[in-house]
């Protein structure tokens, strides 16, 4: 009997070692390269081109030659839009142009930020952001970016900004759910209703639309038409995210699904 138990244990050990190598290979395939200690590929969103920054001044209306009333948003361009850094694949591993916007006093920035701006020959700029490009950039450090050189009337642009914060809101306002009856016997006037069964699956699925914080998030409005553009303002058709004075990032229009702007495209 002891010989039989020893033989069975040896058989289990050999079978365990036989299946251990394939299992480790499968686990390594699922484990990210960073956790395995290897190099990790960086995939970032590419921009359709270098854009400009502005501040939302408000909305108004203009009349076309046909007599149509068109609602527009005026994006004021303050002092700034200066190239503060140029990155290439040879020096940084990717192509990008860093642009600074909104000139402020020196004491509004930290010493490293102030030194970075002075190195580029630019004034103290509050906001710095990169435009990731597919091809090598042609801009030089310290160059002034003018909206009239980037856009013209009739162009399609994307405007990115931070939406107005609405605080904690219910599902009716946050997602447009239908409310219940408002009569005396109703037990659910503005409640969101059932959130799932208790027995199966016995939990709430991730991403369930419920009450919570609304607004105050970065949103991009795509495909807006440029009505007029000058060096100190950009007027686009329609509305853009954010309240008055909010920062707006205006870039050339990038169609969703276009393979040219995919991080994995050659």
Protein model, in words:
The protein has 266 residues and is α+β, with helices and mostly antiparallel strands. Helix content is 19%, strand content 31%. Strand 1 and strand 2 form a beta hairpin.
Short description:
The protein is an alpha+beta fold and 266 residues long.
What labels would you give this structure?
single chain; 266 residues; alpha+beta; 6-stranded antiparallel barrel; 3-stranded antiparallel beta sheet; 5 helices; 19% helix; 31% strand; extended
- Radius of gyration, Cα only, in angstroms? 28 Å
Strand order of the largest sheet: 1-2-10-9-6-11
Give the distance, in angstroms, between the N- and C-terminal Cα atoms.
66 Å
Helix content: 10-25%
Beta content comes to: 25-35%
Number of helices: 5
Low-confidence segments: none
SSE arrangement:
Blueprint lengths: L1 H29 L2 H4 L15 E12 L5 E8 L3 E8 L7 E9 L7 H9 L5 E9 L13 H4 L5 E7 L4 E3 L1 H5 L36 E3 L3 E13 L2 E5 L9 E6 L14
């Amino acid at each position: 009997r002891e010989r039989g138990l020893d033989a069975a244990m040896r058989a289990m050990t050999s079978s365990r070692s036989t299946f251990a190598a394939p299992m480790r290979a499968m686990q390594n395939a699922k484990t990210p390269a960073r956790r395995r200690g290897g190099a990790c590929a960086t995939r970032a969103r590419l921009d359709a081109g270098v854009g400009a920054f502005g501040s939302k001044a408000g909305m108004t209306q203009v009349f076309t030659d046909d007599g149509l009333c068109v609602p527009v948003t005026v994006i004021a361009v303050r002092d700034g839009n200066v190239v503060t850094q140029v990155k290439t694949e040879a020096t940084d591993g990717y192509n990008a142009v860093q642009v600074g916007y909104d000139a402020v006093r020196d004491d509004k920035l930290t010493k490293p930020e102030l030194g970075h701006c002075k190195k580029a020959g630019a004034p103290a700029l509050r906001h710095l952001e990169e435009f990731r490009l597919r091809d090598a950039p042609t801009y030089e450090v310290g160059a002034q970016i003018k909206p009239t050189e980037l856009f013209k009337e009739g162009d399609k642009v994307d405007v990115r900004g931070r939406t107005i914060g609405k605080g904690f809101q219910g599902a009716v306002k946050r997602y447009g759910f239908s409310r219940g009856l408002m009569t005396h016997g109703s037990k659910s006037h503005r409640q969101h209703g059932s959130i799932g069964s208790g027995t199966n699956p016995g939990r709430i699925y991730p991403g369930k639309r419920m009450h919570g914080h609304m607004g105050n998030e970065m949103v991009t409005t795509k495909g807006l038409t440029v009505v007029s553009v000058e060096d100190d303002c950009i007027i686009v058709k329609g509305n853009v995210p954010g309240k008055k004075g909010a920062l707006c990032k205006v870039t050339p229009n990038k169609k969703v699904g276009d393979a040219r702007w995919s991080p994995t495209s050659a």
